[in-house]
Amino acid sequence: MSYSVGQVAAFAGVTVRTLHHYDKAGLLSPGERSHAGYRLYGEGDLVRLQQILFYRELGFPLDEIATILEDPQANALERLRERQRQLGEEIARLQRLAEVAERAMEVQATGVSLTPEERFEVFGEVAFDLSYATEAELRWARSEGRREAMARAAAHTKEDWRRLMGEAAAWRAELLAAFDEGCPSDGERAMDLAEEHRLHIARWFTACPPDMHRRIADDFVADPRAFALVVPPSQQRPGLAAYARKAVHANAARLAGTATAGEEGR
């Protein structure tokens, strides 16, 4: 059975112009012609076209494909191995480019106006996950607190960030110590640490009332990316995120009780 150039182009997913180009290059010349002189492709032509498209998908140039098809047993395997090696290198290169692009987008998404080198110097292991930052932006885009936090973050100087991250590191060390020593999550020490975290947010980003702090802490457990902003994965322990969340909730309840007692004493 024979097929016209239009039919072959349609079911092979290529253009008629491509098939004409293959014919002109001597790579795929149809074995038959119609009475009117039009190209007709037989079964053998279609098999050859399938091979051509396979090698083209792997990125082989046409002249190399022609060489392989002329003597497939002598050339194909070695050339495929070499192409596999080249593709591996290209994948690694593209991955590096993707990481560079992600870091650049993170700078924009988080509002941190530092160079990548300064960010590494200041933040160290603490990483801003772009997907989490984007989701947070979508969830809280209309929030006044979110807008204020982003604006203040963008205005921080390198020295501001250094002080901020120094405070965060000291707080984190205290949290880890309390957890490792088995202090109860609703005990005074853990609640004081929760309150210190709440005030840290208010001092550097936006007002953080207890209800808002509870929602932030809920994300510690619901989304590992959120807790990684507070404690880098290399420093985390099993159950630490839940411990921090419980401490925040206990502190919020303590603050609510203090406010109620104050109102009753008036």
Automatic annotation (TrEMBL):
Residue spans making up a coiled coil are: 77-104
Asked whether the keyword Glycoprotein is assigned, the reply is: no
Q: Which InterPro entries does UniProt cross-reference here?
A: DNA-bd_dom_put_sf, MerR-type_HTH_dom, MerR_fam, TipA-like_antibiotic-bd, TipAS_dom
Protein keywords? Activator, Coiled coil, DNA-binding, Transcription, Transcription regulation
Record PANTHER family: HTH-TYPE TRANSCRIPTIONAL ACTIVATOR MTA, REDOX-CYCLING DRUG-SENSING TRANSCRIPTIONAL ACTIVATOR SOXR
Superkingdom classification of source: Bacteria
Query: What is the recorded name of this protein?
Result: MerR family transcriptional regulator
Locate the HTH merR-type domain: which residues?
1-71
Name the Pfam families on file.
MerR_1, TipAS
Residues crossing the lipid bilayer are: none
| Organism of provenance | Streptomyces fragilis
